[in-house]
Amino acid sequence: MSSTTSTAYTFDNSTRDARDQVQHLAGILDPHTFAVLDDLALPARAVCADLGAGAGTVAARLAERTGPDGHVVVIDLQPQHVPTHPRITIRQQDLVTADLEPDSFDLIHARLLLMHLGQREQILHKLAAALKPGGAMVISDWATDHLDDMFVDGPDPIREVFSAFQHTMIAVCEGNGMDSTWARRVPAVMRQAGLTGIRGETYNRLWNAGEPGMALHASNSRQLEPALLDAGMTRDQLALLRDAMTAPKTPSKVMARSWPMHTTVGFRPAA
Fold first, then answer.
1. Nearest CA to 52 among 34, 32, 26?
2. CATH superfamily of domain region 18-267
3. CA 173 – CA 168 distance, rounded (Å)
4. How far is CA 131 from CA 17, 58, 108, 135, 240, in A?
5. Is 152 strand, coil or helix?
6. Which residues does residue 214 pair with via DSSP β-bridges, in sequence order?
7. What's the gap between Cα 247 and its chain centre?
8. Would you kindly state where each structural domain of the chain is located, as residue ranges?
9. Are 141 and 115 contacting, i.e. CB atoms less than 8 angstroms apart?
């Protein structure tokens, strides 16, 4: 969840908690993302783009898959968590204004990025034009508009605080331009951009206190604490939330589902 927009992006990769956050996201989502990407047939000497690369784990995976003659381009405004790799080039750019050469990439991947960008539909069209004929686009974003379905079990005080946190955090993100329903609209926008063979799947996990998905909520609450307090949450509520998310052996043990991730794959028609 990396900062790649000229508008008020909610999360900042330069904060103290950002490294933990991007690592939590990689741990939570990489198994799903890797399975989707590994199912795609990449040509020899493939050139891939990873947009808003976070911890850089997807870029590294693609660099290994493309082999000695392939290459991966990372485009990210704050790429400091992406490790160096001989087949990864990092372009520290704002995707909104970045120039992408037509017919450049065999694969373009973006995870938890376009949902945050106000120009998301225009950007997707720009990305479609940057694909080579036969190239694939993979877009993964969370749908965050059914927040009351997330909490599964736990004491009522935690349920109330968890709900308040989710609604407050998503309101903060939407105030910065995030679209909670974008993930479900991606297939239609891909079709409008001329992509074909469009397919998709939804990924959702049940997490227990102390597991990575719960740790992400605690991390998010630290990163966004000033905005959450300004929006009406209290420090006591945030402390209670963090304890419940990260302490699996206490009486406040909880279970909750993640936000559903919708992953859509589309292809530029072959020439």
1. 26
2. Vaccinia Virus protein VP39 (3.40.50.150)
3. 9
4. 34, 18, 7, 5, 47
5. strand
6. none
7. 25
8. 18-267
9. yes
- DSSP-derived 3-state class of residue 135: strand
Instruction: Output the six-digit token pair for 170.
Output: 């998503």
Which residues make beta-bridge pairs with 51?
Answer: 75, 110
Give the 3-state secondary structure of residue 123: helix
Q: Which residue has the tokens 């990305």?
A: 127
Q: Which residues contact 137 (CB under 8 A, 6 or more apart)?
A: 107, 108, 109, 124, 127, 128, 131, 190, 195, 265, 266, 267, 268
* CA distances for 81 relative to 107, 124, 147, 204, angstroms: 22, 25, 29, 26
- Model confidence pLDDT, tens digit, residues 50-82: 999 999 999 999 999 998 999 999 999 888 889
pLDDT level of residue 271 (50, 70, 90 thresholds):
confident
Cα-based distances in Å from 138 to 35, 131, 177, 189: 12, 11, 22, 13
Cα 63 to Cα 86: distance, rounded to the nearest angstrom: 9
Token pair in block for residue 179: 């679209």
H/E run at residue 42: none
pLDDT tens digit sequence for 191-203:
999 999 999 999 9
DSSP state, 259?
A: P
Closest CA to 149 of 260, 34, 17: 260
Please tell me the distance from the alpha carbon of residue 141 to that of residue 113, in angstroms, as a whole number.
Answer: 7
- Out of 7-21, 176-190, 242-256, least confident range: 7-21
Sign of CA dihedral 107, 113, 119, 121: positive
Tell whether pTM > 0.85: yes
| Residues 188, 253: Cα–Cα separation, whole Å | 40
